[in-house]
Amino acid sequence: MLPRRFRLPRVLIAETDPETQRRLKDWLKVLGYEAVITTTVGQALAELGRCGFALTFLDPNLDGQDGLDLLRQLQVRGGRPGPIILNASERDLPRVPEARMLGAQEFLCKPFQLADLEQVIKKVLLRPARTWPKGQDKEEGPARLQRELALCRSPRMRDVWVVMRQAAAVDVTVLIEGETGTGKDLVARAIHHFSDRCRASWIKVNCAAVPHDLLESELFGHERGAFTGAHRLKIGKFEAANRGTIFLDEIGDLHPALQAKLLHVLEDGTFSRVGGRAPVKVDVRVLAATNRDLEQEVQAHRFREDLFYRLAVMQIFVPPLRERMEEVPLLADYFVRRYAWLFHRRRFALSPLALERLGDHRFPGNVRELENLIKRMIILNDPALDRTPFRRTNKPEIAAPAAAPLCGNGHVPGTSAVPPTHLAESVASADRVPLKEIARAAARAAEREAIAQALEETGWNRLRAARLLKCSYRALLYKIKDRWFDARRRSHTDGRDQASKPSAPEARRPERARRPRRVFAVGDRSGEPQGASASPAGREDPISTPQLTWTLRGLMP
């Protein structure tokens, strides 16, 4: 094989007509190109996944398939096809504008000659190259999927695989449920891999990661000019996944307005692009995943009941990692081999002590937590798990005080009022609790006590309390909210003596009694009102005569 610098530029030909294939191959060889011939969209995508091409020639009709599906797939999956030239016959000429909107740059009308081919190639090479999205990682292929499936050897996961293989054999919608990080994405990819659609496209959409006002355009596409900024036609994920599989992750976060449109697609396979009039029909298999209990969401009227039954034709529950702890050593070894090579620590290996500590952990974050923990261990070069930040959930946790009402002295009822110094001693008596957690708990308790005392002294005047504590008013408001002092204020108010509370008619704060208007004569320095009655009920007027005289003197010219 010739070295890469001596190889001819490669050209991809997606064509079904043998005569056109032969002529293109011979003429491109004369022009200095090496031709790679494919006859289906799947073969063309496979070649684009292996390498890039200088040019691509595309037939709109590929063995009964729509050749423009290749352009739709490139908009989603990405690749390096180079400038795309359409090989159109006379009956395909009406489809040329659509192909241009999808990314084709020029077209050749069959039958064409060598001069026509040379002229079109020169024309497209002089134009700026179109940029397509980056292709998928090579590790996302079947080889990685097989390696990860081999790690699931627990009885619980074997039951999942039995149901998964049965669901893959039938073209129905599947709802995958489980906690965050359990491997729902792996189950969805396995269903697609073992189904009849494995050679077609695989599209994944995270419904929680895209704002709901943009998700409709992302899923169903939009026409040119549909809204401000829609300068060209955009193909949605459903249209790009035609004859393939679309995976809707976090389906429980889907907006109610889009739930109705998704239900319509599941029923008859048709939808309309944003700003479009003509319906678009697709043949797509839908897989959905969620970490919520959709049955409770239906009862709370946050998820459509009819959509739930449409999605849950087959239901698969992925158990959490704490219920299949025998897989932890296998998963840990897999992540070490993978990321040690990626982070250039190829001699890194877990010690038996680290494996023992991992086996004692409950992993509330499931497989994703284990993966991230292994990454930190490799980066910090900590094979024994001594220096890596690690939350041991099987040990007694030192947490902040719960959001419960506080007593008048600023402590939670049912707990002892322990000063920060004694708190550190009581925390240190636990079973080897990390020093950072001890310091964090002591600091929070001391800060809570100081804020509570300042608020008591100022009668819950937060501005005066901020000055007393020598901090900003905004910082004090944040800490009051963070330390749950609203509950303290409510309990403090509710704990007052019931006899001191005013009755219902007197509950409002009484307005100050209006004082009689004071009328002063010009030049009067005594400050005594003329014609004013005495203070009611013998009360002394809080404003003294010298003060009034001084005020009037200051106001007079």
CATH top level of the largest domain? Alpha Beta
Detail the poorly predicted runs. Answer: 1-6, 394-430, 486-514, 516-557
Shape designation:
globular
User: What radius of gyration results from the CA coordinates?
Assistant: 37 Å
Strand content: 5-15%
| Secondary structure: helix percent | 40-55%
**Gap between N and C termini, in Å?**
106 Å
Oligomer: single chain
* Count of domains: 4
Number of strands: 14
Look up the CATH topology of the largest domain. Rossmann fold
Biggest sheet architecture: 5 strands, parallel
CATH superfamily of the largest domain: P-loop containing nucleotide triphosphate hydrolases
- Tally of separate helices: 22
CATH architecture of the largest domain: 3-Layer(aba) Sandwich
| Content-based structural category | alpha/beta
List the strand order in the largest sheet: 2-1-3-6-7
How much is the average pLDDT?
Answer: 77
Protein described:
By secondary structure, the chain is α/β, with parallel strands linked by helices. It folds into four domains: 4-126, 3-Layer(aba) Sandwich (Rossmann fold), CATH 3.40.50.2300; 139-319, P-loop containing nucleotide triphosphate hydrolases (Rossmann fold, 3-Layer(aba) Sandwich); 326-379, no CATH class; 420-494, Arc Repressor Mutant, subunit A, CATH 1.10.10. It has helices at 18-30, 41-50, 69-77, 96-102, 114-126, 142-149, 155-168, 184-193, 212-220, 237-240, 256-268, 294-299, 305-311, 328-342, 352-360, 366-379, 420-428, 435-457, 462-469, 473-482, 485-494, 545-555, and strands at 10-14, 34-38, 55-58, 61-62, 65-66, 84-88, 106-109, 174-177, 202-206, 245-249, 270-271, 280-281, 285-290, 314-317. Strands 2-1-3-6-7 form a five-stranded parallel beta sheet, sandwiched between helices. A five-stranded parallel beta sheet has the order 9-10-13-8-14. The chain has a two-stranded antiparallel sheet with strand order 4-5. The longest helix is centred in the C-terminal third of the chain and has 23 residues, at 435-457.
